[in-house]
Design brief:
Structural class: alpha+beta
Shape: globular
CATH architecture: 4-Layer Sandwich
Number of strands: 23
Oligomer: single chain
Radius of gyration: 21 Å
Distance between the termini: 48 Å
CATH topology: Purple Acid Phosphatase, chain A, domain 2
Bound molecules: fe (ii) ion
CATH class: Alpha Beta
Largest sheet: 7 strands, mixed
CATH superfamily: Metallo-dependent phosphatases
């Protein structure tokens, strides 16, 4: 636990997107913190450099986490509005009128501003490499970070978030040995991975599915029912009420959502096998969401299980390619995934699924059990240096954020890669850094030691 314990906060504040409505591009941001359920009066104040006085954020609201085996606590949340896009601001947390934490951050960017984001997945494993990646990401000073799943190992449990997530991304000291204070300064956004919602769930463990308690993200996806179709299983019956009471409408609707940042639109999806992405209603929601974002310069999608993967590990898990036709039609630029613990960048590609593999809902079980066949059209002239206008979608696997690497031997065996794979780095942990300058995008893959492993430019 942190020094902040004396002030009854369990973890320092962290920045979240908040429950943003579809298409809301304002520079709002949520500040979230955990504290004991006592009578303390909590408040958040903020100011920009030009302000002489602190302003009050409205709230807070809280979720009660009263779940067996973990200390009862509240997840407090305030929304800061009326910030000026892209401007730095200070915020402070007050308990009973006394400041207990002060942080600095930069407001969400507007349509015309340049910005930078970082992507890494499969991270919360409490490893030396996770700390190094956290530190290097901090040095990159991104405007936001996207985690495409497997946020916290082994089972996405409340009891694992402390050691495997908060202690590293809220490290007071920024160093390769400790991690960095990323969460207090940078908005983190996450998709649920298999370890966050459904796998490695100890039988009867009460504190699973922390994703739905600790992340405050948009609830603008298709409404889903707890334990119903396309939902992860709730905790077992003795813990279900307490969990659902705490999570409220976030469970399970927060599985899928979208948001805008600057001139980009983002779609975040739950790619776990219990979601049937051949469900016509879900497919329509994806198509409509991307269509609505047609005016945005860039469209990005992030989810856990990659649709296109050359690694021997998890080679069977490529069912998400069944959404390629929608992504192609709606002109998605890059799809980011994790799950496979290495870095892979595809050639720009178009994929036409075999009709037999995409017939109806009942085939979903077959789709998740077998590789999805189809026809590829690869842009082999795109090199990201002199030819920067891709014909097709670039699929990036950035799953080397901390957990043990997969298939290090394949890095030097290009003959083992699928034809769609252009770059494959599996011998060192790494993360993705993307700079957006209007119609120009620069993508770099950076190692845990700060060296550049891959670099491309994409222009429109
Ligand atoms: Fe995974």
């Amino acid at each position: 636990m942190r020094p902040a314990d004396q002030d009854r906060t369990i973890w320092n504040p962290y920045l979240q997107l908040g429950n943003v409505a579809l298409g809301d591009s304002s520079a709002r941001i949520d500040v979230v913190w955990h504290a004991s359920p006592d009578a303390s009066r909590w408040a958040v104040e903020y100011k920009e450099a030009s302000d002489t006085v602190w302003k009050s954020a409205s709230g807070p609201h809280f979720r009660l986490v009263d779940i067996r085996s973990v200390p009862t606590h509240r997840v407090y949340d305030v929304t800061i509005t009326s910030l000026r896009p892209g401007r730095p601001f200070d915020y402070r947390l007050l308990r009973n009128g006394v400041s207990v934490f002060t942080g600095q951050a930069v407001a969400k960017n507007s349509e015309r501003q340049n910005y930078r984001f970082v992507v890494f997945g499969d991270c919360g494993a409490n490893t030396a490499s996770q700390r190094k990646v956290a530190y290097q990401s901090y040095l990159a000073k991104p405007n936001f970070i996207v985690i495409p799943g497997d946020i916290v190992y082994e089972g996405g449990r409340i009891s694992e978030y402390g050691s495997n997530f908060f202690s590293i991304y809220e490290s007071a000291e920024a160093s390769p040995e400790q991690g960095a204070p990323l969460l207090t300064s940078t908005t983190m956004i996450a998709a649920p991975g298999n370890h966050d919602t459904n796998e490695e769930r100890d039988e009867g463990a009460p504190d699973v599915l922390a994703y739905f308690l600790y992340w405050i993200q948009p609830l603008n996806g298709p409404p889903l029912k707890p334990g119903g179709p396309n939902s992860p299983a709730p905790p077992d019956a003795t813990n279900e009420f307490a969990f659902e009471n705490g999570a409220g409408p976030a469970f399970p609707t927060m599985e899928n959502f979208s948001f805008d940042w600057g001139n980009s639109h983002w779609l975040i999806l739950d790619s776990n096998y219990y979601v049937n992405w051949n469900d016509p209603d879900l497919r329509k929601w994806v198509a409509d969401d991307l269509k609505r974002a047609n005016a945005k310069q860039w469209r990005f999608v992030a989810f856990h299980h990659p649709g296109f993967n050359s690694s021997r590990e998890h080679f069977e898990d490529q069912w998400m390619r069944c959404l390629s036709d929608i992504f192609q039609r709606e002109k998605v630029d890059i799809v980011f995934s994790g799950h496979v613990h290495n870095y892979q960048r595809s050639r720009p590609l178009n994929f036409q699924i075999d009709p037999a593999d995409n017939s109806d809902n009942t085939s979903w079980k077959n789709i998740i059990a077998n590789p999805v066949d189809g026809t590829f059209s690869l842009d082999t002239t795109f090199d990201g240096v002199s030819k920067t206008d891709p014909h097709g979608i670039i699929y990036v696997v950035s799953g080397a954020g901390g957990e043990t690497l997969y298939n290090p031997e394949q890095q030097t065996e290009p003959e083992s890669w699928q034809k769609f794979t252009s770059k494959f780095v599996s011998q060192i942990h790494s993360f993705t850094v993307v700079d957006i300058h209007g119609k120009s995008l620069a993508l770099k893959q950076v190692s845990e030691d700060g060296s550049v492993l891959d670099q491309i430019r994409v222009t429109k």
